Amino acid sequence: MNIILDRPLVADGQDYSPPAPPPRLALKPANAAPGLLDGAWWPRSRDLTRELPALIDTLDRCWARVTRVAVHPSLWPVIPHKVPASGHVVHVGWFDEQDANKLLLLSYTTGRLDLLVIPPECDLAAAARLMAAAADPRCRRTASGIMADDECLTVRRGEADWEAEGGAPSSAGTAAMAVHAGGMWA
Questions:
Q1: Which are the contacts of 119, defined by CB distance < 8 A and separation ≥ 6?
Q2: Is residue 173 exposed (0-12), middle (13-18) or buried (19+ Cβ within 10 Å)?
Q3: Is residue 41 within 8 Å of residue 77, measured between CB atoms?
Q4: Beta 82-85 vs 39-41: how paired, if at all?
């Protein structure tokens, strides 16, 4: 028998929430030269209230205490003003001028961390390529530049449209996917 609960479990008068899974995160090595990005984050949903605490907790331990987060509003349907993290609250803001595919994290002690945000609906292979590209110490591209350079994302969208109309994917699109899947980055 399956049991589905539509509200959190309550134990001793307190709400019970299962622990959040660890964030899907790739960072450049600590000794890497500064670039436009410091790594990539692949959230599981577009719910910042649910996704940010695990990311912040991880970065608090391995980078510095995160105090502020900035996002572009186009990727997030709801942007909370504050998000609780372990032992502190992080202020969240949004800026239209910021790269739409980037998350900016600030720390009073260390400075800033710029992460490529990989769309939650991205498939595993494409996400792995994007994470590797953003965390590569030699990477000098913007977040939107990396997303645009990953032809596999655009080829797959085009193939899905073509197949929905009764056609078959072209061999040129398949060849482009194979080149990028092989790890060739400019």
A1: 75
A2: middle
A3: no
A4: unpaired
Instruction: Please tell me the distance from the alpha carbon of residue 172 to that of residue 160, in angstroms, as a whole number.
Output: 15
- CB neighbours (10 Å) of residue 34? 9
pTM listed for this prediction: 0.72
CB hemisphere CA count around 52 (13 angstroms): 27
CA-to-CA separations, 153 to 8, 55, 66, 119, 146, in angstroms, rounded: 37, 25, 31, 11, 11
Pairing of strands 25-27, 82-85: unpaired
33-54 pLDDT tens trace: 888 999 999 999 999 999 999 9
